[in-house]
Amino acid sequence: MSPIGKTQPTGTAGLRDSVLGRDLSFLLARANALTLAAANAALAQHGLKARSYSVLALAADDVRPTQRELAEFLRLDPSQVVALVDELEKRQLVERRTDPADRRANVLVVTDTGRALFARAQESAHAVELGLLAAVTPQDHERLAELLRLLAFPT
Amino acid sequence: MSPIGKTQPTGTAGLRDSVLGRDLSFLLARANALTLAAANAALAQHGLKARSYSVLALAADDVRPTQRELAEFLRLDPSQVVALVDELEKRQLVERRTDPADRRANVLVVTDTGRALFARAQESAHAVELGLLAAVTPQDHERLAELLRLLAFPT
DNA sequence: TATTGTTATACTCTATAACTATA
DNA sequence: TATAGTTATAGAGTATAACAATA
Q1: What is the mean pLDDT of chain B?
Q2: Where is the HTH marR-type domain (chains A, B) (predicted)?
Q3: CA-to-CA dists, residue A107 to A61, A77, A94, A123, A140, angstroms
């Protein structure tokens, strides 16, 4: 039936030229799905997932974020942050400290072991990212990050 | 405590300059989350979500994809495609036709009403996408799509 | 009154395994 | 023996509402 002989295993190749294959939202979703899967696989050896890695990363920075800030930044519900911090705190990677300025708020502080684990996890994450970006030149890598930043943080 | 007076409502701004704020995987995830939410909101008026919109889009193209191809292309489990197609078929937007070449496979064909609905939904989706890309120039829009394609379809 | 963190709950999404019919 | 579609089910992820402590 199809004019072109089906030499491909599954025949997905043809779909890339469809309308959807040019749709930015779809490309974003698919790129994210692949990246997330690869990241989770690489982080598993450290007992982390993309979510917990992100929380640990922000704690390891000396930003001292409150849980509310984490929720907003990571686009998570505050109740989800509770579970993530619970897990990291149980593993003694981070600590909750009540903010003296606002005693309702918890500020996240990384522990020494947390910082050490993050350093190792970051290496794994970075290696995976480089693998995914194999087809992208280094300057385009930065260009892509800039463009994504515009989408991720609309003023 | 913080050196900078907290003039911002929540203080998320500082987190953007963190390590994570420069991480491509994170930017991808956040950009995707915002885009997906906006797309779903816009598609709701047509009784669609990003998922069902994608399936309808591929059916509306004359690619005649099998469900297996849809699953692979959309990174969904074949069982999820069943549910999506069930819903679209119940609304008479698409039809399942058994592929004469391989009678195990179902080929998706769009109906006239399906095509009409897709045209309207596509307009909504496109309008939303333009809104999200307000800070991106048209040529950068295309550049972003190209770079995302490299990530979304690794050879 | 409003907000932070928390708990509980329900809902959606995702992943897995088993089954059928075709190949 | 393998593959396409289907079904059922359990797990992960997400969203919502209500509550205690603090502002």
Answers
A1: 92
A2: 21-153
A3: 12, 17, 10, 26, 36
Q: Which of A27, A49, A31 is nearest to A40 (CA)?
A: A49
Q: State whether A25 and B35 contact (CB < 8 Å).
A: yes
**Closest residue to C14 (CA, C1′):** B77
- State residue B1's pLDDT score: 33
Which pLDDT band holds residue B5 (cuts at 50, 70, 90)? very low
- Position B106 pLDDT exceeds 90: yes
- Give CA separation, A63 vs A57, A67, A73, B3, B100, in Å: 10, 12, 12, 12, 61
| B90 min Cα distance to partner chain A (Å) | 23
Residue A103 maps to which CATH number? Answer: 1.10.10.10
The ranges of chain A with pLDDT < 50 are 1-9
Q: A19 lies in a domain? A: no
With respect to residue B11, please indicate whether it lies within any of the assigned structural domains: no
3-state SS, residue A97: strand
